[in-house]
């Protein structure tokens, strides 16, 4: 068994190989002046189980091409089984045709990953329905892992929380809040939009009162930080004591981090699916546990 | 029938649709701040024959991803037949495993193009043996077209040539010189390395004397311009009157153009497989003629 780390996930790949107590294959990588990339796997892979770790975060097209080249090379080199772990899965946003004639890029890249040579695929915190329901996107076995419990555990371990509550910023993320809440034996809830009359819309926790409580907001992704900033402000207005802003994928475009801190977050915490300055929690144990089974 | 032009080949795509006297589909294209791209084909494609024109020159990974998205979208939208015309084919360089463990990127991208949804593929002046010999790279019908005749015809039309000769700078390109020479009823030859004793290597035309003749040098690609510059110098030393530097794919990295002009080329001529300042010859009639058949 060996782990192969792509350019976007070299550090994480090493951590995964440590967790699995197996070899971390060194990969020679080059980019030519014309933008073409080159990869070479130095280790013997014939007859081995290989786990490729590669996020397809920015720059997504280069990172996808590198992933395709690694998978196809492993295939050619007769690896016994090829697993792709794509911690951040680029192009997941366009998962259906919103307007006639659109390319459904999520489906396209899924197809390309399979045809490049993956036998199974692991992803982190993609909205569940994208993987599981409707016409199946993946023909090969696909596992959607979650970082929710390790994020809430990180907060619980590093702070003495008072009557903690885990909150999803919208209903779409409620399953993650539930899992994260359960894992630290805390209450959980999600935010809802309540209409007052024709125009006024109020966003609040669905049921729970957050007054004088420590709140962990949990989302799959922080991009521009708009959703997170708004949620923090509302919770502060509702009397929350301390607010922790947690996410699996810290995309953090523009000045997202500054905005969230200014809104009053005690700490912003992400995982290493995307390397960033808030990547304080590693998903290595999560993939290792799932892969071992 | 309709032609779809990718970002790298919009102008050429339009020319191809003119040649074929068919509709040029407008494609909405966007790049998001995270580097992900979006394409949408506005025209009705159901039941239509679609020809996608997209070079995979710089930036190759983005251009390939756009090609994959277009092909998959056409597939989804039930186009009757999907043809991919890839005038410049990125990743053609790595067509075999030179060192153990290398990804054979030419094979990988060929596989991805097919699985994205192409029913047939057209390329320009890829070294013939890559397409035709050995274990087949493409499972779908693949056509390797040549711009050699239109390049030599361009020179013959614009200059009154004296005892013209078409020369390939090495044996690998001799077929193109032969075709280009025949098309303007000129002599043709290729350059060879002749060894004099242990160390001295002389590069000359294999047979023909170029003294006082107009020479068209013809190569598939000009990258750094090293091969072309050397050939021009030698031909000038051998008394050639005028030298024209022609290629199908004007990659022209670094200061290639300046170097070639300084070496004494009368004109540098490329095609529009890669848009450039020397793209004076369009390959549109070549693909149109082949596609019609």
Automatic annotation (TrEMBL), chains A, B:
A GO molecular function held by the record: kinase activity
Cell compartments where the protein resides: Cytoplasm
Pathway membership: Metabolic intermediate biosynthesis; 5-phospho-alpha-D-ribose 1-diphosphate biosynthesis; 5-phospho-alpha-D-ribose 1-diphosphate from D-ribose 5-phosphate (route I): step 1/1
Broadest EC class assigned to this enzyme: transferase
Binding site for Mg(2+) 2: 170
Chain's role: Involved in the biosynthesis of the central metabolite phospho-alpha-D-ribosyl-1-pyrophosphate (PRPP) via the transfer of pyrophosphoryl group from ATP to 1-hydroxyl of ribose-5-phosphate (Rib-5-P).
Protein name per the record: Ribose-phosphate pyrophosphokinase
Species the sequence originates in: candidate division MSBL1 archaeon SCGC-AAA382A03
Name of the coding gene: prs
